[in-house]
Design brief:
single chain; 114 residues; mainly alpha; Multidrug-efflux Transporter Regulator, Chain: A, Domain 2; two-stranded antiparallel sheet; 2 strands; 54% helix; 4% strand; DNA-bd_dom_put_sf; DNA binding; MerR_fam
Length: 114
């Protein structure tokens, strides 16, 4: 986000029209992405969608992948793999912290036993 952008918070704040305008993604596409499970906006008690900055960032990533020629099924798989990678990196960092740091006896620094 550049310095001229309005400051945003991670809370679900934006309605579907504002999200469409901010992201450059049409309202019908947003609804379609939700049906496919690519986005899961928060809902008000009345059922109105509310999108967060995290949703906007995800939309940006979806748009990048589509612009690169990836179809929506591929986008779903890539996003799932990226999320899994983040989880694994988090687990790896936690395990390194529990074991006292990087590397160790019998470790070549890549996590592989030698």
């Amino acid at each position: 986000m550049d310095r001229n952008s309005p400051r945003r918070t991670p809370a679900a704040l934006y309605g579907i029209s504002v999200t469409a305008e901010l992201s450059g993604v049409g309202v019908q596409a947003l609804r379609h992405y939700e049906r496919l499970g690519l986005l899961t906006p928060e809902r008000t008690d009345g059922g109105t969608r509310r999108y967060s900055d995290r949703d906007l960032a995800r939309l940006e990533r979806i748009s990048e992948l589509i612009d690169a020629g990836v179809n929506l099924v591929g986008v779903r798989h890539i996003l799932a793999l990226e999320a899994r990678n983040v989880d694994l990196e988090t687990d790896n960092a936690r395990l390194r912290g529990e074991s006292g740091g990087e590397g160790g006896a019998g470790d070549d620094g890549t996590g592989r036993r030698v």
